[in-house]
Design a protein that fits this description.
Structural class: mainly beta
Strand content: over 45%
Shape: elongated
Oligomer: single chain
Number of domains: 2
Length: 298
């Protein structure tokens, strides 16, 4: 089953709706410019997509979005054509980056996909709001904030943008020039590299955590029941641990061990046991997710 309720002869519309019958989690593959993407998971065998213009003047852009569901690969592709100097269009993402001034207006993509789906998002400017549980999320962008509920594997590479994640179950890699990172529950291997952003992460399982920052502060919170091995250094900032460490930077109580490697040029590094206040970060992110969805152009 495929539904597109916008017909070519109807002229410009400020909304298009698509539905696809699916029999398993899918991969959402989006390449876009100034678009916010809202995704929720559910346990139904249907994938839904609404493309919505934030104002009537952007209706023409809605009509030009290319949407295709590949039933063999279980991939839902969403593309924005790029207008060239000759007036023709092309859907190559690189072309859009080279001709970014050809785009005007802002859209929302509002989706519902099966639980356990994957998200592959490439964007110039726009946020990702992902509620529910995902197997893998990849986000590349020039300026993109992301608020994410639960994911097994997360990779985020942006020039500028904040990241908030409620739960990461396996691994995460974040590289950002400017933007804060807040992970309320990290259960697997983690790599955070920022230039000026702060990093806050709560570690809730045995794993290796690596943080690199030029001028941002690092806050690492460790749940009780885990030992810690630390290599933390800051050239001009302060390094402090509220957890007692021996001369080798380790606790030695026989508990499962977390390895933390943190380096900063001028930022402070602070290592603490997770408090009730810090544990509320998960609830705070859930509230942000709810608020963002309420603000979507539904």
């Amino acid at each position: 089953m495929t539904i597109d309720n916008t017909l070519p002869d109807q002229g410009a519309s400020d909304r298009r709706h698509f539905e696809y019958a699916v029999d398993q989690p899918i991969t959402l593959d989006v390449q876009c410019t100034s678009t916010d993407i809202y995704v929720r998971t559910h346990d139904e065998p249907i994938a839904r997509l609404d493309i919505v213009a934030r104002s009537p003047k952007d209706a023409e852009r809605v009509s030009k979005i290319l949407v295709n569901y590949d039933t063999h690969r279980h991939v839902l592709e969403v593309r924005e054509p790029q207008r060239t100097s000759s007036g023709q269009t092309k859907s190559k993402f690189l072309g859009r980056l080279l001709n970014i001034d050809a785009f005007t207006g802002e859209l929302d993509y509002i989706l519902t996909v099966p639980t356990g789906s994957n998200l592959d998002i490439s964007t110039v400017s726009g946020d990702l709001v992902a509620d529910g549980t995902y197997t893998r999320i990849g986000l590349k962008g020039a300026s993109s904030d992301a608020v994410i509920d639960t994911v097994n594997d997360l990779a985020m590479h942006v020039a500028s943008g904040d990241l908030q994640v409620r739960e990461i179950r396996e691994r995460v890699t974040v590289r950002s020039a400017s933007g804060d990172v807040d992970v309320a529950d990290a259960q697997g291997a983690a790599v955070f590299e920022t230039v000026s952003g702060d990093v806050r992460v709560t570690i809730t399982n045995t794993c290796d955590v690596r943080v690199r920052s030029v001028s941002g502060d690092v806050r690492a919170y460790l749940e009780p029941g885990f030992a810690l091995t630390v290599d933390a250094r800051s050239t001009s900032g302060e390094v402090r641990s509220d957890i007692s460490l021996d001369s080798d930077g380790a606790t030695d109580d026989g508990s499962p061990t977390v390895v933390l490697n943190a380096k900063s040029m001028s930022g402070d590094i602070r290592i603490k046991r997770a408090s009730d206040k810090r544990r509320r970060a998960s609830e705070n992110i859930a509230e942000v997710l709810s608020s963002r969805f309420e603000s979507a152009a539904v």
